[in-house]
């Protein structure tokens, strides 16, 4: 984390391009772009070394607004394009910006495979639980029963939980943040950058036009203290006013307890270990739901594992050493060759 | 020039006890019934009881069959069936280059290998690198196939030859009925043995079908051989090597994003062996990820390629549009197979041409070229890459199963003799640069890749401003951009050779071909020219754009006939582009290449008509 | 017949304090600069201080502008901007049917609705069901857009009109520069206010762009109206209704598998409302799942449909091939938009024709038809379904953004007057039945669906035996099947009406159109015919196969000109199919429909040339 | 389970079609088709009521060999086609046959969405950890480092665990079986049929040609007693010779113990609850790996949840009741209509 203590090369706003930002006034995407710009600034990233890849959706317009290299691709394919970018030039810092529809509906396959391979790309997943750009149809993260343009009588499907899907796909970095907290987003994005491998940062993003306040129970000023728990590596899992509440393990279940009640003290509270190899507890934390539990925020899982691009290039270097050919001419002239004279 | 498909030589070889004579005879009977002319050559071991597993003990049966030109049992086999190492060893010196060898891999143990006189295991070293090898665990498969019948080991083992015959029948699309009836007849008093043989032949056939076994075709050298050093090469291997050579001449790493599909998989499998060249092979989760990763790699500065066949090509449609819009250099290789849909995965066809030129939403022009022989896949893969990089455009290279799996001698090119490729990369800031600012001659934009200081920019699939590349909804700009994208592709015609044709004095009939049927078309026209007929031949490798002198050539002839393995796609394409000419058609849609005979018939007919 | 696109009437209406006069004036200034002719009609409330929020207090500004024919401020608006319920109420009686209404949804509270004199909330009942309504929370969006500036509430609120103007500018693709300069000029002593206005107009514009707002076009009735009961309908709604009607006439439930995409989403959204008809709408995870679920539903006996637009169509390519191979009845609706790639999602174009007819791997023929007006989308959706079910084939129906979002009066059809559709279903065992056994007349196979006793069978994407439908690798069978699949589509021509044309006495120039430009082409030719010009007009709805008498009609004319919103796709298609004729082209690729004026110019020019 | 006790309508072989089975001799697919035929027979399924949908691959040839309705579709799309079949006719018994490539490589997106929606379809997933039909390239389930035709130097990616991916996609039925045990396969397939919702039955299938013995450590006669544990609902988790070993929970980790050692008796052993709503323990069981743990076999998860097709048709029936329109004519004549007289 050394980078953050150095003098910054650029101010956050230096990362903005000259293009006008075209999201609806009040859209959660504005906060996310601020956080990304702050993150880049604090990480001292060179503009030319960053490539931002997106699919299609409101959120996917993101690259246009950044003065880095950017690619607004086609719907659902950002992960695949980003994979090509990273394998073509592993020195680039590759970021992927994508919506819940883009990454989890049409792009679901590339998502699970990028996670599985653990390629070193940072995904910011703008989860507004709706298809914004196409004006309000339900998405694979829309809550069951939701009335939208394409579900006038309520949906009859249950949503994905982004964190569960990430872990089920063998994910090693998953974080959840509300779009209301630029500071937290920045902190988490920095960790995503520092994590080697595929990092999934789910942002609970508000779409003021087609799904306003869908996250309000979690993110609003009034409720957030009790309805969010910020997980920090190495720290006890406390939340609520004055951190008066905490989480305990009861068999295989989590339990919310109040400090001081029933003889519970801070020492009894679980301590967050984001780097645990086992994902069992991470999964339990990810699955916590209102009203019984607070919603887990912060970096929930951040574990080491084999990184695809690293292994890929290591194998390449090995082969450069081991190959019996030193040039294509060697190769072409190998095997059974014969000569024809005029 | 002639291809082996007019007639084929197969040799069955194995230990004396392996039943090779029977296998040979049964195959002969079936092909005879199918109306082929045939010559056979049984070749027993000279010693009566030569030691098992030795070269001396090998028993062989050679069959030459075909629709025409079968006057001898043939010199060297196109397909060798070798039931053990000794059988392989005995025939290795007398094989056509790049022929297909069908082996019983179960028979290759340390002991048998030594006995046959091989130093190393020939399946593991370079011995067979020039052949198309089908390794099948024939002994164990036969045993498994017959377990239900409760035969003793030996009896089951005896059915190996029949199982093998089943594989060969599949390779030649021969029907099984004749042979099955033979077994019923012959073993009518021993129904278990009859059943065992029937089961075995079906199991062999189905096994080949299941693993999508493909035999290779082999084209002999043209009469006038260019002096030089040669090796045999299949079309897919040549494609892979051409791509590697092009990347090297462009000074950039090669990237391949691909998903396995018959008959294109070999290109990927070849490239993946050569990591030492810094070639990056990404086996994607599907074809869409294959091409999208390729587009990403092109954006980031690699020589980026994706390979596939029909159904996979269909899946790449949307992403090709993105490459058109973003004007990135990528190569898309389509090794065509029989369609529509899953169709005939192991058969050859040329029916993806319309899809290549017009099969996308919107006005979405790309360069389309095709290869004409297994060896020249090298050149066309190289050329596809050159055009992509020097004209900043996606290029579709069409080859075919017949080329990909076919082989021929290739005059080895050294890297030195290949032309440089000059990617349009801009590496240091140019004050006048804009992401979509164009060169006046070719209308190309510059390739500025991530990592280059001070030229950060954004691209994408929305319509873009003609110069800045920013998103633009302006109506006039859109029309202009549609025209520019088209014109950019048209101008490629200024940088390719003129179309040539053979038969300068001819006036009556021009034979037009494209793609992998070059050899056979050439052969047929050649024979007719020798017979003094008024006929000429021109073969297209550049499909879009067409060479600039195409109309000029066409205008010299009374009649034009377009010959292709589809229902007339190139003919229709020519009608749309050069409507001033009338096009006759000769089409074959059987998953098989043309034959010289049928072509000559058709041409003669046209020559005789007024 | 004329369309509104030659000239447009906009009315801005709001409370006296809402700044409608300013908005109107600013818009006028810009359109004038863009070279339009203009007439305006400011219309103030008669009372000096009429009560806020009442109908009496509504202030309006009407602008009529266009390239020609603007002689008055216009009768009724094509677009009404209503800043509150009262403004809506005041203008509701005087709206063109199916016009676009842009509303500030923030202004619709219980109180304001009552004050305006509405019984119920007009946004929730049927009041606006005939209009294209764009509901935008203008007040709050404006506020959010200006938060940074630290303005007081009132000042921010005052910018609503400017924000709204931004939306209108987007709808008409008008540039903002002129207005921005005006603000800079006007408020040069108060930069904050200048900035607020500039921010507001940009925010409105970007908002409309982001949500892909589309205005509807409206076509007035042709001169001779068929007597009957009418309602207004958009093309997308008509498509949805036509599909429901067809399913009912076929006696099967309707199934739609689709994924949202502009401008096709409305069809899905309309159908999903009508679950009561047993219509099954499956919002799939992507377009591939959309069409694949459709194919599954067709296999299982539903009237199965998928809807999409260009990029989605590209993704469906592979699966369309499967439907061709399995000969299942499905309808694929492509509401075309500007391409290539993501292109211009909200703009109209006709550039997916080649993709529809030829854009698949292998020889993969399907029926392609197109609609010509918003209302006749009903008929063509019905006809597409009829052909699919009665000819056991996939049918592609091409409509366009211009049709899908456009509206016109539709003479309401009763179910009784619609023809029966007879699916080729076989429900009880027929001893001679085979899965691919065909009818001699149409070459169709029977539709036997899972659940039917004693006729279990298997289908798939591999080539199949001509009769049994079992997988077949036989070369002759493949050629036969390719021919049968083609001929089956060709024979649809025996079951469709002959092509008609208007201008029986004309000899010189035949205007050929297809798809959604019917109205404008008809209008242009009609005017020239009235002027006594030697011109005729024929419009194609059947693309593949073409009506049987097409060549006969073409042969009557000296010149043929094909007019389309692309770079000449139908022209090229005609060249391939009917190469005996010469085709002139008129093309426009601007995301906009033709204008009568430009067409007349072009036609006159051709009429004058020798 | 009443069905199984009745007289069977058909014998297993009655479900075979007249087409010759074309897998390689010795292929694990033969055992799977036997089990499916036995299952259908024991469930008394009418042939015409069964529809078998597959993609492309060796395994996907399955429908041709069954005398039911069948659809051999295109690569990766079987789940989407099957979904259409089920929604067109919910009375059909819909089975999906698919390989690891077909369902998890190209078909990954349809897989996770079918699981999430919980549509009542039974998937038999033939996991041979290889692309068989295309002659031996690695698949998303091939173990890391595996040498195949497309990974001559070993793969550099980690595989999916089918069960984890199923649970991460919100799956409610997951079972694992070896292709060597037709009886167990039959039992598990019957449970899959009886489960309402999407059932995933992963078969560890041997490809004799391109990936022979890849599951041998688990399935071979010599090793299976110690290397497999058969989980049965309501029964203790015992395995090994004479069921001498068992599983315990130690905090959030599983542990293998020997009955009789360290005072452990059978009562201490975990009892399998396949129907538990929480998937935590199921996930732990699914993740067990050799050599530390045996591989879990049998029905690991079988929990009730909302079923997509059921909810879909319930909503339809509701709308039939509630709609203000009774016919399309009503609809067409609604809203603002006007009359033009001649
Ligand atoms: C191939 C294709 N299919 C569909 C679309 C239409 N489309 C564009 S964005 C989008 C969904 C957007 O939702 P999400 O990814 O959640 O982004 P948001 O707009 O909510 O930020 C859809 C369906 C498209 N552009 N391309
Ligand atoms: C669109 C498309 N892409 C690729 C292929 C080639 N292909 C056929 S089956 C297959 C993979 C088979 O693997 P799996 O699903 O595991 O089945 P198995 O053969 O192992 O049973 C591939 C890549 C195809 N037929 N279609
Ligand atoms: S529609 Fe929603 S997600 Fe899209 S820009 Fe507007 S507020 Fe944001
Ligand atoms: S290749 Fe493998 S999976 Fe395919 S049929 Fe043969 S043994 Fe079975
Ligand atoms: Mg979204
Ligand atoms: Mg497999």
Please characterize this protein's 3D structure.
The complex is a heterotetramer, with 2 copies of chain A (342 residues) and 2 copies of chain B (610 residues). Chain A is α/β, with parallel strands linked by helices and 342 residues long. Chain A is built from 11 helices and 12 strands. An 8-stranded mixed sheet of chain A has the order 2-1-3-4-6-5-11-7, with helices on both faces. In chain A, helix 1 packs across helix 6 (182-194). The N and C termini of chain A lie far apart (69 Å). With 610 residues, chain B is α/β, with parallel strands linked by helices. Chain B folds into 3 domains: 2-220, Pyruvate-ferredoxin oxidoreductase, PFOR, domain III (Pyruvate-ferredoxin Oxidoreductase, domain 3); 227-495, Thiamin diphosphate (ThDP)-binding fold, Pyr/PP domains (Rossmann fold, 3-Layer(aba) Sandwich); 509-608, Rossmann fold (3-Layer(aba) Sandwich), CATH 3.40.50. Chain B is 36% helix and 18% strand. Chain B is built from 20 helices and 20 strands. Chain B has helices spanning 20-33, 85-92, 110-116, 138-146, 153-158, 160-171, 177-186, 191-210, 235-250, 265-273, 287-299, 310-326, 353-358, 377-391, 401-404, 475-490, 518-530, 550-554, 569-577, 596-608; strands at residues 7-15, 37-43, 58-66, 79-82, 100-104, 132-136, 228-234, 254-258, 280-283, 303-308, 330-336, 367-370, 395-400, 407-411, 458-460, 509-514, 535-540, 542-544, 559-564, 584-587. In chain B, strands 9-8-10-11-13-12-18 form a 7-stranded mixed sheet, with helices on both faces. Chain B has a 6-stranded mixed sheet with strand order 2-3-1-4-5-6, sandwiched between helices. In chain B, helix 6 crosses helix 8. Chain B is globular. Residues 1-5 and 220-224 of chain B have low confidence and may be disordered. Chains in contact: A-B, A-C, A-D, B-C, B-D, C-D. At the C-D interface, strand 7, helix 9, helix 11, helix 12 and strand 15 of C face strand 1, strand 2, helix 2, helix 4 and helix 10 of D. Strand 12 of chain A pairs antiparallel with strand 7 of chain B. The structure holds thiamine diphosphate (2 copies), iron/sulfur cluster (SF4) (2 copies) and magnesium ion (2 copies). One iron/sulfur cluster is lined by residues 23-24, 27, 29, 58, 128, 132, 207-210 of chain A. One thiamine diphosphate sits between chains D (56-59, 75, 99-102, 126, 128, 130-134, 139) and B (259-261, 287, 311-312, 315, 342).
């Amino acid at each position: 984390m050394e980078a953050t203590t150095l003098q910054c090369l650029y101010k956050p706003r230096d990362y903005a391009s000259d293009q006008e930002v075209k999201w609806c006034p009040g859209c959660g995407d504005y906060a996310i772009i601020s956080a990304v710009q702050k993150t880049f600034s604090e990480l001292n990233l060179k503009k030319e070394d960053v490539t931002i890849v997106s699919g299609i959706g409101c959120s996917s317009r993101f690259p246009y607004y950044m003065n880095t290299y950017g690619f607004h691709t086609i719907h659902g394919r950002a992960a695949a394009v980003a994979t090509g970018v990273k394998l073509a030039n592993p020195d680039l810092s590759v970021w992927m910006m994508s919506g819940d529809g883009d990454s989890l509906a049409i792009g679901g396959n590339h998502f699970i495979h990028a996670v599985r391979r653990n390629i070193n790309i940072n995904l910011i997943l703008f989860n507004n639980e709706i298809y914004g750009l196409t004006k309000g149809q339900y998405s694979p993260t829309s809550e069951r029963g939701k009335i939208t343009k394409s579900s006038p009588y309520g949906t009859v499907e249950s949503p994905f939980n982004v964190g569960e899907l990430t872990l089920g796909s063998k994910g090693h970095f998953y974080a959840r943040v509300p779009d209301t907290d630029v500071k937290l987003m920045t902190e988490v994005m920095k960790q995503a950058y520092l994590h080697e491998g595929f990092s999934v940062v789910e942002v609970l993003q508000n779409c003021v036009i087609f799904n306003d306040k869908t996250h309000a129970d979690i993110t609003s000023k009034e409720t957030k203290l009790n309805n969010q728990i910020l997980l920090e590596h190495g720290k006890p899992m406390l939340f609520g006013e004055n951190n008066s509440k905490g989480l305990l393990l009861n068999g295989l279940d989590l339990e919310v307890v109040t400090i001081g009640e029933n003889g519970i003290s801070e020492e009894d509270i679980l301590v967050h270990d984001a780097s645990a190899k086992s994902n069992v507890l991470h999964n339990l934390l990810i699955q916590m739901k209102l009203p019984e539990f607070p919603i887990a925020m912060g970096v929930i899982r951040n574990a080491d594992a084999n990184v695809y691009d690293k292994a890929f290039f290591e194998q390449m270097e090995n082969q450069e050493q081991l190959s019996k050919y030193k040039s294509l001419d060697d190769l072409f002239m190998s095997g059974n060759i014969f000569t024809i004279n005029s | 020039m002639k291809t082996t498909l007019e007639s084929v030589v197969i040799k069955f070889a194995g230990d004396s006890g392996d039943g090779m004579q029977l296998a040979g005879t049964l195959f002969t009977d079936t092909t005879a019934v199918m109306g082929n002319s045939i010559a056979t050559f049984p070749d027993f071991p000279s010693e009566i009881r030569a030691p098992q597993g030795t070269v001396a003990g090998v028993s062989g049966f050679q069959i030459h069959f075909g629709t025409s030109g079968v006057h001898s049992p043939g010199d060297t086999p196109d397909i060798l069936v070798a039931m053990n190492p000794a059988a392989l060893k005995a025939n290795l010196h007398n094989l056509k280059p790049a022929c297909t060898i069908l082996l019983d891999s179960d028979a290759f143990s340390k002991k048998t290998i030594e006995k046959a006189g091989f130093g190393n295991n020939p399946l593991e070293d370079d011995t067979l690198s020039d052949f198309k090898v089908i390794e099948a665990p024939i002994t164990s498969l036969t045993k498994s196939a017959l377990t239900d019948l409760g035969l003793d080991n030996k009896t089951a083992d005896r059915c190996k030859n029949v199982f093998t015959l089943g594989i060969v029948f599949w390779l030649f699309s021969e029907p099984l009925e004749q042979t099955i009836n033979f077994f019923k007849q012959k073993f009518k008093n021993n129904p278990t043995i009859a059943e065992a043989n029937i089961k075995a032949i079906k199991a062999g056939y189905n096994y080949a079908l299941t693993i999508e076994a493909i035999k290779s075709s082999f084209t002999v050298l043209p009469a006038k051989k260019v002096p030089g050093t040669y090796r045999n090469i299949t079309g897919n291997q040549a494609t892979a090597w051409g791509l590697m050579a092009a990347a090297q001449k462009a000074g950039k790493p090669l990237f391949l994003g691909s998903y396995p599909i018959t008959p294109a998989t070999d290109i990927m499998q070849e490239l993946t062996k050569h990591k030492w060249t810094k070639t990056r092979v990404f086996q994607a989760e599907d074809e869409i990820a294959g091409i999208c990763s390729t587009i990403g790699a092109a954006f980031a500065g690699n020589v980026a390629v994706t390979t596939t066949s029909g159904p996979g090509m269909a899946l790449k449609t949307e992403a090709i549009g993105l490459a058109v819009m973003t004007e990135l250099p990528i190569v898309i290789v389509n090794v065509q197979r029989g369609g529509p849909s899953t169709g005939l995965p192991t058969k050859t066809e040329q029916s993806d041409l319309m899809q290549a030129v017009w099969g996308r939403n919107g006005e979405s022009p790309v360069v389309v070229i095709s290869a004409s022989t297994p060896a020249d896949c090298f050149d066309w893969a190289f050329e596809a890459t050159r055009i992509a990089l020097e004209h900043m455009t996606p290029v579709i290279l069409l080859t075919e199963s017949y080329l990909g799996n076919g082989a021929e001698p290739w005059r080895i090119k050294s890297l030195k003799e290949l032309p440089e490729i000059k990617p349009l990369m801009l590496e240091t800031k140019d004050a006048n640069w804009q992401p979509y600012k164009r060169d006046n001659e070719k209308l190309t934009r510059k390739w500025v890749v991530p990592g280059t200081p001070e030229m950060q920019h954004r691209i994408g699939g929305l319509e873009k401003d003609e110069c800045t590349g920013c998103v633009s909804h302006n109506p006039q700009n859109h029309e202009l951009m549609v025209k520019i994208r088209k014109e950019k592709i048209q101008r490629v015609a200024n940088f390719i050779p003129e179309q040539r044709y053979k038969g300068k004095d001819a006036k009556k009939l021009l034979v037009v071909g494209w793609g992998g049927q070059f050899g056979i078309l050439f052969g047929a026209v050649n024979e007719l020219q020798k017979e003094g007929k008024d006929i000429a031949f021109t073969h297209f490798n550049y499909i879009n754009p067409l060479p600039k002198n195409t109309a000029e050539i066409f205008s010299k002839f009374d009649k034009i006939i377009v010959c292709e393995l589809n229902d007339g796609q190139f003919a229709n394409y020519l009608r749309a582009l050069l409507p001033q000419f009338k096009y006759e058609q000769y089409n074959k849609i059987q998953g098989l290449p043309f034959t010289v005979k049928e072509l000559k018939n058709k041409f003669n007919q046209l020559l005789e008509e007024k």
